[in-house]
Amino acid sequence: MTAVIETEQLTKFYGTHRGIVEVDLAVNEGEVFGFLGPNGAGKTTTIRLLLDLIRPTSGRARLFGIETTADPVAIHRRIGYLPGEFTLYDRLTGGQTLAYFAALRGGVDPRYQASLVERFDLDPDRRFREYSKGNKQKVGLLVALQHRPDLLLLDEPTAGLDPLVQRTFFAILRERVAEGGTVFLSSHILSEVEKSCDRVAIIRDGRLARLDRVDALRDLAHHEVELRFAGPVPAEAFTGLPGVSDVAAADGVLRLRVAGAIAPVVQAAARYELLDFVSREPSLEETFLAEYGGATAEAKQP
Amino acid sequence: MLLRNVFLKSLRDLRWPTFWTGLGLGILGFYFMWLFPTIGKMMDLQSILDAFPPALRALIGGQLIDLGSPAGFLNMELFPLMLPLILGGFAIGVASGATAGEEARGTLDVLLAEPLERWAVLTEKTVAIVLATIIVAAFLLVGVWGGAAFTGTDLALDKVVAGLVVGTLLALAFGGITLAIAAFTGSRATAIGITGALLVATYFINALAPMVESLNQIRGISPFFYYLGHDPLRNGLDLGDAAVLAVVAVVGFAVSLVGFERRDLAA
């Protein structure tokens, strides 16, 4: 498979302020790649580095095999970009905005443009400043999509879109991918990434925390187990078990996290008078929050 | 139709500021030429002016004041202060908006993610700004000409054109400085503030130079020295002066290209 995006130790500092640190990732042709992290983690910095809007402090990034700082225009020809926070020209209508950006690319297929406007249900005759947040987002997405780019770089694409439009948007993304396109989208909403992406990179505090297939990430998720006993139970009976962590015992209630097989916990519990057993698999969102929460706890240590 | 490229889009964005500034300056030019026959005959006004302390005289036009001729009249009323302030202010204002304006509003990210070289975007915008500044100056020419024709004043139009050419170059010199600062800092307010202060300071250096020896020595650093220094309204265009101002404008633009190519753009 060909890598459409490839970064090597990509690092960006704004003065002494951290942007991203030594990010290595590769996005393959034809995949939908999710870039996940809380606000301020470095998602926007990464995307803007890929576009050469800002320059790396060290490391490099290549798109379509071209280094970003070497020939950004050649890269931009094949890209559709939606910034996270953007505005367009207040006094231009939606239709004029699309016409302008189409002209800057030497024209787009008018039928495809018209079909997108119709599917997003955008009134193209209103001025940009008169649009609601959601409609502004639609104009931004149309600017990114209308020339059928090989690679879509979308920073928080669903922000402000109502659920129906989000469905349209993801349907269009799937079509682009079916036609051979590649999508790199950032989000801080896990459920959205979980549904739409093949692989996910999680970024926190500017560093890549994890990069995996979405289903693999789900496998990595812990079970959160709550055991209720008739009387107090020694926590030590569970702490040594394989995959078990975060054991907390209080008044016959035992809470713990299990990664992998749950059978050893069940067997250990059977030796005591077990009243109730609750096990739940946390969503990717919770897994992610646990991951990130751990990081902040570490950061707090002196 | 006007949304075909960055140059035409920039002209489109500038059309109303250009029209209104031009109209204002044009009316002013007409008004002064319309006043001239009345004021020009008030010879005692000239003697009052002649009696002004040299410092005050210098501030309102120096040795160029001669209310008896239309050129002398324009040299006092319009060209020394009014024109640099309005035309220069216009050039500074629009030049500060070229990149820093889009950057501050947040439209620059989308624009520069298009397949466009940064230098090309800045160049197209700059050409639009130069054209708009020339159009504003042309409005003034039409106003002055109209006023002279209306009152039957005998005015050497070619000399007025010469004055407007250096006036436009003066404005573009300040515009070039604005572009450079805006491209490096990305801040519209910084660019306007520094260049505006520079305009005022260099105006006073030039105006007070005849009285203050220390200022006289550094008079050459003031763009205003190359503006009316050779009295274009009487003597026509001085190519050396025009070249100095043009070089300042071009260097400012070149510096802005370097700054804009290198810099991280604000999100």
Structure description:
The complex is a heterodimer of chains A (302) and B (267). With 302 residues, chain A is of the alpha/beta class. Chain A folds into 2 domains: 3-218, P-loop containing nucleotide triphosphate hydrolases (Rossmann fold), CATH 3.40.50; 222-280, Alpha-Beta Plaits (2-Layer Sandwich). Helices cover 35% and strands 30% of the residues of chain A. Chain A is built from 11 helices and 14 strands. In chain A, the strands form 3 sheets. Chain A has a 6-stranded mixed sheet with strand order 6-7-8-3-9-10, with helices on both faces. A 4-stranded antiparallel sheet of chain A has the order 2-1-4-5. In chain A, helix 3 packs parallel to helix 5 (133-145). The radius of gyration of chain A is 23 Å and the shape is elongated. Mean pLDDT of chain A is 89; it is low at 294-302. Chain B has one domain. In chain B, helix 5 (82-105) runs antiparallel to helix 9 and helix 7 packs antiparallel against helix 8 (157-185). The longest helix of chain B is centred in the N-terminal third of the chain and has 36 residues, at 6-41. The model of chain B has no long low-confidence stretch (mean pLDDT 90). Classes of the chains: A alpha/beta (302), B mainly alpha (267). Chain A binds chain B through residues 14, 44, 48, 51, 53-55, 73-74, 76-77, 79, 81, 83-90, 92, 96, 99-101, 103-105, 140, 143, and chain B through 3-6, 9, 105-107, 109-117, 264-265, 267.
